[in-house]
Design goal:
It contains one helix and 27 strands. It is mostly beta strands. The strands form seven sheets. A five-stranded mixed β-sheet has the order 8-17-16-10-11, with no helix packed on it. Strands 18, 19, 20, 23 and 25 form a five-stranded mixed β-sheet that branches. A hairpin with a 4-residue loop joins strand 2 and strand 3. The chain is elongated, with a radius of gyration of 33 Å.
Length: about 350
Amino acid sequence: MKVAIENVSNTPMDSVLVRYRVVKEDGSVLPLQNIRYRPLAPHDTIQAALGFASIPYVGNNFLFIEANPDQDQPELYHPNNLGYVPFRVKNDVLNPLLDVTFDSIYISDRDIVSPHPEIKIRLIGQNRYRLLDDTSLIQLNLKSPDDPISLVNGQRIAYDGTVCRFIPARFDSTGRLRNEAYVIYKPKLTRFSTSPTDNLYELIVKAKDPSGNPAGANDYRVSFRAVATSGISQIYSYPNPFVAKTRFAFLITGDALPKDILIQIADLKGRMVRTITQADLGPLRIGQNLPTYEWDGRDDSGVPLPAGLYLYRATVESGKTPLQHIPTDADAAFKNGWGRMLFLPQ
């Protein structure tokens, strides 16, 4: 803020001392700053500028401005050196937003993840004046299957710059502030699961903004598990039966992804009508996969096929690591590797 100060006398001042204080709603007076400005000639005016952080002054206040306090320079009349400017500081009540992904995917409780996932935690501030730039704003705990029951929230994860790294909010190349802080956490999971209920890990994230507003009413918590065996389940259509479109779901475990996947669809006469490649399916991940690709009942030429029963099978090519077959309930719907899908008329 700026305030004009004029020397109404015929005597020059070699400088101008200005005292700034804040008078709070309860009547308490808090010192702010004392600033000495340039010399002021007779009948000359200066623009006294002041900048200060308003964070401690939530509520209704007065900025008390006093020029030449305590007779810093002798003068006959002082009351016209005083000024009061009312101002109000609104409390920051906007909660920050929290976003957590495992290898760029949102997971649900008890999902299977890679034995060494990249967990990315993003905290988005709603106040552009208070930067998310302190490691204390995001606290991580990992509960391991080996932790005692008494250790409800597991072990606190320290920021070491390698396994767990904090990236503060910053300005982009255009000078625009992106008030988002990140944590990149790359744990190595050594306890493996053989069922949805054993050897579960749990990630607990407690996050807040500099005003103390939490990212949610409760801490973020999600359980997950790792599987030692590198493998892939039967690839099945979902939904099945379907009216207009169907997708393909499957599970990948361990630490290796397929080199290639080929899905072939045939009619009941054995004619191949559609071939779907891994490029069609898109990126794969360790854990449950439901690619966004949808088969819309058309053949390889784009011609709509008649409604009815179709056969399909998936061929999986392993990379350097052989992929074993992961048994699931979907296996019962396949015979000699072939499954059936029912395309219903619209």
